[in-house]
Amino acid sequence: MKSKGLYLILAVVLGLIQITLTIGLKTHASGGHSLITYLIIVILLVVMFMVGRLTKKKGGSPLWMGALTGGIYGLIAGLGSFFVKVDASKFQNAALTAQQITKAVKYANSPVAHLMTDVVSIIIFGVIGLVVGIIGGSTAKRENPTDTH
């Protein structure tokens, strides 16, 4: 691909697939979406790497473009938490009293917890994108604008 915009669109598509998977399975990504989630993340890492390379070739900053790609994916994938409801069965094996379980379920289903999940997703994938973008950029040379071929 020759356009950074196409890589960003691919990050959006991967995020939409992830949010659909989260809503369909009614569990957070940390709950183990299995092979499909891992495949999406591997594809995302490749996208971040390639956007870093392309950005460096075009004279931009691979660091920020990788972070933007990861952040966009994190934003969209993190929205899935708003559609997942936690029940008391998630805390069954924990050594908690009934009152503590009720409090934990109430907090886990609060808008603040969902918003925190989305923000953390943006930060985590943004930092991963930052690192992978740098690595991708380090494997490319800037194009020389005086070359005519």
The whole-number mean of residue pLDDT values reads 84
Helix content percent band: 55-70%
Number of helices: 5
Approximate strand percentage: under 5%
Rg from alpha-carbon coordinates: 19 Å
Give the SSE order as H and E letters: HHHHH
Q: What are the low-pLDDT stretches, counting only 5+ consecutive residues below 50? A: none
**3D shape:** elongated
Strands, count: 0
Domain count: the total is 1
Overall structural class, as computed from helix and strand content, comes to mainly alpha
State the end-to-end CA separation. Answer: 19 Å
Major sheet characteristics: none
Name some characteristics of this structure.
149 residues, elongated, mainly alpha
Structural summary, described in words:
The chain is mainly alpha-helical. It has one domain (4-138). Helix content is 68%, strand content 0%. The chain has five helices and no strands. α1 (4-25) runs antiparallel to α2. It is elongated, with a radius of gyration of 19 Å.
In short:
This protein is an all-alpha fold. The protein has five helices and no strands. The longest helix has 28 residues, at 111-138.
